Design the sequence.
């Protein structure tokens, strides 16, 4: 699992530890939840919303841009691709052959 090292001043570190403790979570779990709240719009509990509001006020909230110009694939080409995907040697057969 990737790790990120942060350098923060002592007061911020103490505040993070206090908030994590108050929430009954480890510092790592609490920080991960804060980072997820900052980047994942599907999170919607009240703590997350409060965090998101604080990040927005500080200008730190990442707002995903809509994907403009994307369109659905042609239905006929998609159907052809689905039919073709079911043909050929199965993955389990390829793995079994490689073990011989």
Sequence:
């Amino acid at each position: 699992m990737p790790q990120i090292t942060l350098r923060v001043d002592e007061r911020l570190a103490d505040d993070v530890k206090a908030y994590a403790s108050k929430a009954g979570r480890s510092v790592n779990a609490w920080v991960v939840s804060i980072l997820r709240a900052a980047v994942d719009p599907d999170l919607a509990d009240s703590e997350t919303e409060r965090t998101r509001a604080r990040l927005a006020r500080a200008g730190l909230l990442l707002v995903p841009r809509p994907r403009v110009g994307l369109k659905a694939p042609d239905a006929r080409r998609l159907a052809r691709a689905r039919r073709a995907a079911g043909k050929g040697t199965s993955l389990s057969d390829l793995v079994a052959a490689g073990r011989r």
Summary: Residues 34 and 51 are 7 Å apart (CA to CA).
